[in-house]
Design brief:
The chain is mainly alpha-helical. The protein contains 4 helices and 2 strands; from the N terminus they run E-H-H-E-H-H. The protein has one domain. Strands 1-2 form a two-stranded antiparallel sheet. The longest helix has 32 residues.
């Protein structure tokens, strides 16, 4: 009952990262109106690019490869990530909440950083979704 097809693990990853991306991007965009400028937009794109190239793009490739390499077709539904990925997610969520609640992250930082980060998370979700559809066609 708690086991799903390998392709479904990709769909679960898609849904988790898309939800995270939409939420973080929403927080950033809600804070952005007072800070729209070419410099801030540049830094948001820079944050997006750095996270996509060095973190989330690699994460999508790594976990898609791991999932498709499973020998058994049906896997426990939490296996869409490994322990390290769940730990990273928990640390990022805790750190982000702490930044906002504590006031250590000024509104401009929230706008610029969260917009870039959220867009990168959202793209990771979309890429997992693309890999899910590819897996269904095989």
């Amino acid at each position: 009952m708690l086991k799903v097809k390998k392709s479904t693990l990709l769909l679960l990853a898609c849904l988790v990262w898309t939800a995270a991306g939409v939420n973080i991007l929403r927080i950033g965009l809600l804070a952005y109106p007072d800070y729209v400028s070419p410099v801030n937009l540049f830094f948001s794109v820079l944050v997006f690019t750095v996270f996509q190239i060095f973190i989330f793009g690699r994460l999508v490739r790594k976990h898609t490869g791991r999932i498709t390499a499973y020998e058994q077709e049906r896997q426990f539904f939490f296996r869409f990530f490994d322990g390290k990925a769940f730990l990273i997610m928990a640390i990022m969520m805790t750190g982000g909440i702490y930044l906002r609640v504590s006031g250590l992250g000024p509104e401009r930082f929230i706008a610029v950083f969260y917009s870039g980060l959220g867009a990168s998370l959202l793209l990771a979700g979309v890429l997992f979704g693309r890999n899910y559809w590819k897996a269904l066609r095989v």
